[in-house]
Write the structure tokens for this entry.
Amino acid sequence: MSEKTWTEIPIGGVIETAGNATEYETGSWRTYRPIWFADRCIHCLRCWIACPDSSIMTEDGKVTGIDYAHCKGCGICSFECPVDPKSIEMKLETDVDAE
Amino acid sequence: MARRLTLTGNDAGAEAMRQIDPDVVAAFPITPQTELMHKFAEHVADGDVKAEFVLVESEHSAMSATVGAAAAGARAMTATSANGLALMWEIVYIAASYRLPIVMPVINRALSGPINIHCDHSDTMGCRDSGWIQLYSESAQEVYDNLLQAVRIAENPDVLLPVMVTFDGFIISHTAEVLDALDDSEARKWVGEYRPKYPLLDTDNPMTFGPLDLQDYYFEHKRQQVEGMRAAPDVIRKVGREYGELSGRSYDLMERYKTDDAELVIVALGSTCGTTKAVVDELRDQGKKVGLLKIRAFRPFVEGEVVDALRTAGAVAVLDRSISFGAPGGPVHKEIRAALYGTDCRTPIVNYIYGLGGRDINTDQIRSVFEDMEKVAGGPTPEDNIRFIGLRE
């Protein structure tokens, strides 16, 4: 998103569109990234319930992946995962990039 | 058909509010504002207004409720004084930054401490940087007229800033005066229907108020507020002229009372202007060329108007009913000096701090100010240029 001048934005800090928080890629703030192992997952959906950023993607009641554009890497999903070994592991972003 | 009434300043304010009939009024009492809302509460109880009257638990809540209502799309008002204004301070800034056209009577009272319920300008001067337009009223007539004009000024699409209409506590608020008021249908037509720019209750066009603004956009939003204030002088003048056509009483940013050929000029705000006019008239009868520059709009402060009015004077006395501690003198003095800097005007300017905590200012004292200025005229600004009048020294 390019930065706009004071004449190009609505006055008063008003945001004129609804639901445009999805355009803000808070995933860029991450330090740790959740890695999902599909073969370990029992689709209990505890991670989906607990995720504060609605970043566990699902379809037909089954987990399909992580929305990395919005996941902030808080690790709650991994913490809540009940299986052993966990189906979500947190890895440093810098390590993931290196792989 | 105009009506001639005898009302106190507070009742004049309540009368204007009755005719404006805002959608929402939030109320919390503080001396000397209390009776204004008492009178308005009577109008609510009698069914004379349709306003939703919200009794809140503090002034912080009063302004919060007013901001919420205004953001929803309502024409919203509240009123306060002194420490009440201080308590709502953070929301006062928010109201301006959200560009909500709230109109608020502020009945000038000294800020504590020690606790003092009487008149001075420390309260509204404390808010001079908040982004609100500030109109100072000289009399109950002006309270009434300013409130009606304030609605049109605030709601102007080029302005969209809240307006505080101030008047001196007890001196104006509690003393009765004869004034002329519009009839209800004229007043209702004058204020017209409010068309909010971003009503939250318009669910077909959902929007958000008060989101987080980081380093990348806060500055730009503040620049927009500057633009609203820059548009305000022309709007205040235009509304003042149009109100004059309707009522016979027109208004401007400032009032020049016999300043055109004046050798000595006093600059003042509020009820002291009335006192000063009486002295000006008396001295003029004696052949002395004196005048008063009355500042009505302190925010926006239009330097050009000041320079025009003062450039030919031999000496200027600026009366401040508040102090800016640590600055030499008071806020009005600073503004006047700044306005004349950079011009070729060499007129000496002396600041008189007066009337704090309701200390009286009378015609003898105003006369003595003009006498002082006679001695100062023609020379430079004296070294002793911050004086106190009415103080026991």
